[in-house]
User: Fold these one by one.
Assistant:
Number 1:
Amino acid sequence: MKPSSLALPASATALLTAAVFAVATVAQAPQGPQNPAGGPPPPPPPRTYLAPTNLKVLPKNLTGQQVRDIMEQWEGSLGVHCSTCHTPDPNNIGPNGRPQLNFADDSKPEKATARLMYTMTEDINRNYVSRIESSEAPVTCGTCHRGHLGPEPFVIPPDEHDGPRPPQAPPPAGTKPPLPH
Ligand code: HEC
Ligand code: HEC
């Protein structure tokens, strides 16, 4: 708002400016800790996540934050969203007006499959990969899924069916070079 455009007398403009300044100062005051260095205010404290109540395959003593970190890895490894495995709860409407997910609920088949997959992956690492000397690459969801819910079938490139070709001896002088195949 430009006070001059209101065509008020100078005294009224000065009063208005003072009032606006006062309001702005008051509005700023309760805004949490200010950065003493004068830069932007420090970031808000990290969100806290509720402790899990229905873990059947992950270690039961994980904190809410640890479960959250694992879930975000699964989400990324499979290229899906939380709602691929978790059911919305029509009785719990969130601030955006949409039902929140009920993470402890077990009704989606994808959640059951993910439990099986987790157990399988742990088994592969504990009982097989760990036996390979100097193994540094444990199997993760992403090893197979690579950003897809259903792992894509691997198609062998046509040139590599027989493995690498042996180096070809140069043809004797005077012979035609072999046709490329
Ligand atoms: C591929 C399926 C899958 C995806 C995607 C997924 N989850 Fe999960 N989630 C599970 C499974 C399976 C469990 C139960 C693990 C267990 O039984 O130990 C679980 C458990 C949880 C729990 C603990 C619930 C409780 O109280 O026991 C929370 C919280 C959670 N997920 C949040 C999320 C969030 C947030 C996302 C998205 C960032 C997400 N999940 C994405 C499969 C998934
Ligand atoms: C050794 C390879 C491998 C690993 C490791 C693996 N998966 Fe899978 N996963 C598969 C295959 C194969 C399928 C079956 C795909 C199909 O044909 O539908 C599958 C299917 C799934 C499905 C069902 C997909 C659907 O269409 O409903 C989910 C969910 C899933 N995996 C989650 C996970 C999670 C979570 C992890 C890690 C904890 C994981 N997988 C690790 C190979 C793997």
Number 2:
Amino acid sequence: MPKSNERDRYLAIIEAMGEGVLLISRKHRITLSNRSACSMLSWVSPLKGKHIEEVFSSSILPATIDTVFRTGRKEELKITSYLSSSGADAVIKGKGREKIYKFSITLLDDKYAVVTITDETMMERMSVVRQDFVSNVSHELKTPLTAITGFAETLMDENLSAEETKSFARIIHKNSTQMQRIISDLLLLTSLDREEIAPAMENTTDTKILSEVRAYTQFRAEAKSIAVSYSPEGFSLICSESLIVQALINLVVNAISYSPQGSSVSISSRKKGDRAEFKVSDRGFGISEDDLPRIFERFYRVDKARSRESGGTGLGLSIVRHIAIIHKGTIKAESRLGEGSEFTLSIPLR
Ligand SMILES: Nc1ncnc2c1ncn2[C@@H]1O[C@H](COP(=O)(O)OP(=O)(O)O)[C@@H](O)[C@H]1O
Ligand SMILES: [Mg+2]
């Protein structure tokens, strides 16, 4: 037996652990539990003295514990539980937030087994997000690639007129440009993920930022006879200038793409308290209430055909959101179907 102050120290360490720890007897009685175990199982009263059957509605855990006592081998299992919002003694049953826990059961001696519980909810969710992302990327690249392959095959036919040859080459060019755009947006998103830790900040002004955005988008606006008004207030700020310019270009390109010929777009910036606020508004097609909460998701488009027609990748707004987050800022969208949209990017001046 360890000395009493040594024992207290061990207990304090167990109590402080992020993993849930339960010591369980052969008869399924909990003889020790730490704070993490109680909170993971949303159990308010002490777990000590309870039988695991009282705590878990699932019979898998007791059965696995028996196996561990019988074989002496470590066992692992994953349990999906629904935490009740009341937090009362109602574990792993009923409705509520879904949680995924990993239970590892190890034999301590012939009387006790140790159960450690880790919350794997985030990891599981991230792996689902990653799988979805890979399948989305593959799908997005497959569409233009299929067109390229098909038209290249047709081009190999020697009986084509010069006119036909040209038109097929044009389609191939358009689709490969689309693939290039998707890939460069994806690379940008990946580099933003990395930059999240330490973006390179510099001193600049809103006037300079807006004039760069103008230079990049002028051609597009003219092509659609859209009048774009620029109204910088004139102030200094510290930010990643190139990223803020990129975010605003994405917003302005959207405003132009999703507005009819001859419409108008306005971009303004002002100092609001200790924040810089950039607004891009249009009088275009607008976004419905149902779609609005989803437009910042990767690859989400309201109208796929319209987006593709304007050279969209479905990644523009998720890039904007990323850039806002990197600057500890926010991006907000307001819109009415058929009336227009307004996007507000707000970042701290420093
Ligand atoms: N100013 C806007 N007006 C109307 N719809 C917009 C506007 N900006 C974005 N959207 C909608 O949000 C979707 C996602 O935008 P974005 O991420 O930039 O992708 P995309 O490449 O399709 O432009 C667009 O496909 C469009 O349906
Ligand atoms: Mg876009």
Number 3:
Amino acid sequence: MPFLELRVMQVNILFPINAEGFTYLVPGELEEKIKPGLRVLAPFRSGKKVGIVVGLDKTTAITQDKEITLKSIESVLDDEPLIPDNLLKLIQWVGQYYMSTSGLALKNAVPSGIFEGKKGSKGRITYDHEAAPAKKINLTAEQQKALSEIISAVSGAFLLHGVTGSGKTEIYIRAIEELGDKEAIVLVPEIALTTQIVDRFRARFQDKVVFFHSGLSPGERITSWRKIRNGEVKVALGVRSAVFAPFKNLGLIIIDEEHEASYKQFEGLKYSARDAALARSKIESIKIILGSATPSIESFYHAKKGKLGYLELTQRVEQRPMPRVEIIDMTREEKESLSYSRKLLDVLEKNLSEGHQSLIMLNRRGYSPFLMCTDCGYTYKCPACSITLTYHKDTKTLNCHYCNSFLKPQDACPECKGTKIKYIGLGTQRIEEELHELLPELNLKRMDRDTTTKKLSHYRIVKDMEDKKIAVLLGTQMIAKGHDFPDVTVAAVVFADVALNLPDFRSSERTFQLFTQLAGRAGRGDVSGAVYIQTYEPEHYVFDYVRNHDYKGFYQNEIELRKELSYPPFSKLIRVVFSFRNKEDGVRTMKSVSARIKKITRPRNPKLKTQNLKSDFEILGPSPASIEKIRNYWRWHLILKGANSKSLRLAALKILESIKDIRDVKADIDVDPINLL
Ligand SMILES: [Zn+2]
Ligand SMILES: [Zn+2]
């Protein structure tokens, strides 16, 4: 019997799961209704699932054979497309570029309640305080010039490089005001930093701003998402996932503190919200502003090459001076405790007596990073990770900062039964305790991940700082970024050495950025500021650039190193992490993995390392990762390095293909990795 040829409409349906789209048939009565972006209900495995139509094929000829294998969608849930076309394109770009799946990108992009048919919370989202009305601010000549360039452009990417306190936020707000009926997305790196910026945006745009982030309840997320989708708001402000805000008439994206590592998601879909935003600006042909006082080396390089428009603010507003930076040499200085030099204590006391506030940073939470037996040298390690446990004095526990497990230390050493156990090294809890003992009259508050777990807790700390109920705010990098406290005139780093020598090609960049950002918190009001950095390595070259607020000098030094080693921006990287339940299995398996990789792609001659990577790429490793074990998995990794992102992705696919038949190995891909540990 000849095949009966039917012309039946097929659609590609994307579900919020880690997979690409699935093909379904469209029953005749739904053919007229179906469009990309609509939600449909479709049979999936033994049940039903809500998915999004991503592609149509109206004239597919299918045979009877094929018809049997394809299922039909059951119903269409929307009259109009729910997901704007440009957002669908972005979701597919993210899935493809990061070598993940469009389905996982969809899951990150759209609140899960949308697929569960939930309506969202009733009423509007309330804030527990009112933002003060906006003051009229006169722009500096530099601000005016930067703003004019942004306004006059139709599309394109700008790097807004403005020293701390130069008024970048004001430029963001004015650029949005000039958009007419178009909408804007504002990305900020961390929820903890948003209190003040949300206030400023609300003072200008009132309830036309939604604060869109993963910390919202599921109901709040749906409500915010639908408001954006229905054109009821002008500005969506948020962390990473706000890049997927479902605006239909977007005109501008702003990425504040574009250099921040937290724009990269480290778990699940490993995407960079900054780079996804750049992709979205291209898809939508709109403007994008990358703002920073300390641009990432990559962004500044692209600005120099003309790929980003360069806008510079060299002066603080109201001609306020940059703070004076002093390096305190802890090898020579008189010390009052483990953490504090006499000099720093004098500064803090004087600052308090003059009625000003201070910030003190140590980029390590907990009480001390080691608990050590002084008889045998035993230190507690996490049973699941190859990481030393950090002692937390408030809970009297040893905590793993990688897997969050903890244990109670014993009175005697588990190894030699000795009882001389010592706290080695500094954490934020310890510098708080020491300062409290040294200067009991000071009103202290600590801000780190441990004191800001409760909803609104960081908001309260910021308000108490603004109301001057706190004299000294101590904390991790959380206190260094973004805040604008006019009465802070002293900012200090207790032990700069924590950050100096990490085994990562970005560690100098991170250190320079962190100290410069912290310095930027001081002297933002009428009184000029000063910064004190305690270190045992005062000769380290980074301090020269921090002291002189010399970003460009730092850049010049750093870009030479990057070029010499062919690191980004001179190359692209893809990291593949292999993990194993068992250490010996890992060693054995990685031997055969290495052999197979050699066959498919011969690494470049290592002697040619300094040559530019135009057409070729190299493979570094595989080797055991710096952190050999996390959550009971033994880890190996390799790094693909080359000039062309596409050929790197192809090579990564070949590697995965070549090990497909090896059991018990999990391979995880990270495109443009931030962390190589
Ligand atoms: Zn011992
Ligand atoms: Zn652990």
Number 4:
Amino acid sequence: MAKGLISALLVTLCLTWPAANALAADERMAVTLNDEQKSFVLGHMRDMLEALTDTQQLLLEGKREELRQRIANLQSREQANRPKGLGKQIPPAFRAMAQSMRPHWQAIQNPDLSEEEVRQHAVDLMRVCNACHLTFSIQ
Ligand code: HEC
């Protein structure tokens, strides 16, 4: 009985803590970027949100080859526009979180995975987006 109560409390805490935390005073770690770096990073963020939206649509339509191309376009645009020196400016923890998106984008691109697997990777990817947004801000 007490055990059940404690685990129910723990689950509630885990579910509400991130939301409560986001509403509290901004305690995120600030990453300072110059104007060019900032406009690249935020532009790429908006691109990723659009790519995730298209991912949902293309999965619904079963257009896996188009999906592969869509993510490849996202990645080549990122590489073409990335300002020099950005890598040195961002803290290692930020870079590590950015890199942890990679296997999920790769899986979304992979036409050999089942739709269910791709959808799970899309959800896991969004958890990385959210975790990073709770941890960092850009100045
Ligand atoms: C490595 C950390 C990190 C990851 C991973 C990340 N973001 Fe962000 N994102 C940020 C930061 C920091 C900001 C700026 C937030 C602030 O300063 O309030 C931001 C801002 C944004 C914005 C607002 C852009 C604007 O024009 O202001 C969007 C949209 C966004 N992210 C989408 C995403 C999506 C979608 C994903 C996952 C596919 C994602 N982000 C993954 C760190 C991250």
